[in-house]
Structure formats: structure tokens, C-alpha cells
Amino acid sequence: MLTNEPALWTAPGSGRQPTRDHEFRIHAGGEAAGTLRWANGTYQKNTCTLEGTYRLAWDPYSEQDGPGGEFRYLAVLVSPTAGDARAL
After folding, report:
1. Confidence (pTM)
2. Which end of the chain is more exposed for a tag (fewer CB within 10 A), N or C?
3. Is 86 exposed, middle or buried (0-12, 13-18, 19+ CB in 10 A)?
4. CA-to-CA distance for 87 and 47, rounded, in angstroms?
5. 58 burial via Cβ count (<10 Å: 0-12, 13-18, 19+)
6. Residue ranges in the chain whose pLDDT is less than 50
């Protein structure tokens, strides 16, 4: 993912109320693992179960002049599951 939106890589402030998407946050230093539920599971269609643990580390991409000029990217390595017929 490539973006110039700092809200995606910045962790929410302390004392902030949980949002409906809090289990899906991808801020720097975060981790994606287990079962992720949208709004504490009230919207079942958005439930996602991950088979691994994924460290979320944003890296600088480019710096442009003006507001919104900082771009960062997030690349998450996903390995094929053993026995997965789609694995090359």
C-alpha cells in the first residue's frame, strides 16, 4: 500500500474510543493476526481470519513539497500455506 494519509500509519491517541474498524487498523508497529471482526462482530460479512501473524512496518517512499507531501508504503510478506494448491 502506498499513501500520503498519515492517519493510516499513525497509531490512534490514548483515551480514544474504539472505532468499528479498530481490529483492522494498520498503523506502524501494529500486528495483524487471528480473527478480525468489524464492529465487534456485528457485521459478519467483514470478519476475516488470518492464518499467520503479520508485522506492520511503514517505510518512507518519497517527500514532495506542500501539504500531504510525505508518502509512505506498507509491504506485508505473505507466505503460501503448506499444501496450498495455489502456491507456486
Report:
1. 0.77
2. C
3. exposed
4. 24
5. buried
6. 86-88
